[in-house]
Design a protein that fits this description.
- It contains 16 helices and 14 strands.
- With 372 residues, the protein is an alpha/beta fold.
- The protein has a domain of 240 residues.
- The longest helix has 23 residues.
Length: 372
Amino acid sequence: MRKKISRTVKLVTPNWMKKGLFIAKKKFISRKKSKGASSQPAIVSKKQLVHDFRSMGVRSGDTLLVQTALSCIGFVEGGPNTFIEALIESVGKNGTILIPTFNRPPKSYSDSNFSFDVRKTKTNVGAVAEVFRKRSDVTRSLHPTHSFAAWGNQAKDFLRGHDESDTGFGENTPYDRLVKSGGKILLIGNNNNSLVHYIELQVGFPLTHKEGRMSVNVTDDNGNLKRVPLKLHTMGERLVIVKDSSPQNRDYVLCQDFLVIPYPGRKSEIQALGFLKSHSPFLEARQKQLQRKGILHFGKVGNADSCLMDTRPFYRVLYSEFKENMVSHEKEYAKMAACSSNWNEIQWYYLVFGNEAALKLLKAWRRLLKIR
């Protein structure tokens, strides 16, 4: 039976997809072998995590939003539970912890089967988020695609009414309240800073959401059903025009990298995609200035390069820069919005076929925008 199914799958699968899957498989095996050949990661205890959080600048009473890649830390003794307990000990009984518990969205506005159950819908943003949302002392918001889970002194205040925001990142959402209350964001092992979505909406960045709107069924903690408005995020990363690149040789950076680049390896990843081959002096200078002012703090949590940011002054700086950027390059952003589907295709090629094919598409996309 298994052989029959295998033969059928091979017959119906197009050649381009077979090739992509074959390359992806080879890359996966290669990475697995290289990891196996390296030395075993050090064991990271709860005591060390608390020490590292303190060294980064986390204090008792803080309101702290955390986005983490647990595997980058090392082998955490006790896994996600230990990590969460270390966070709780660090902020104390007067503190608040927020963790995004985003889940897979519907593919289109016509998807009438999509629904969200705050008790049962799994998150797709990592093991820490999934374990955190299930805790009995944690509350989860009712936004159907971009929910947050919260523990602590102000947990319910931060999550209240989140389902009333169709985007999940506008006014009176967890990010809005975090910025206005002067909370902190801790990025561990990555720079997937979802604050970028809040800033994008505030400055009116193009193409953050698909045209249209839908209502979806949401089930709360008591099993009650309600209808909630939802706008769908556009897939793929949005690009920011770099301030100090010349009009003759205009360059771009991903939105998340315009905010902050918290670990050295990210530079090589950006360069591999064809952006900022020498990196941007403007972004480097701004980041150093924010560090000197104490708005950004860099350090290690276990083995992971990490970044702690003070959201209120950080938002003020980035809002002004984004707004100025939008006004200065209004026509170019209009072109980017018109060609957005090409960027989504480049991302997909990069994941399946690798860097070389992605760069070919990137060059074609730049020609479309008349960029050298």
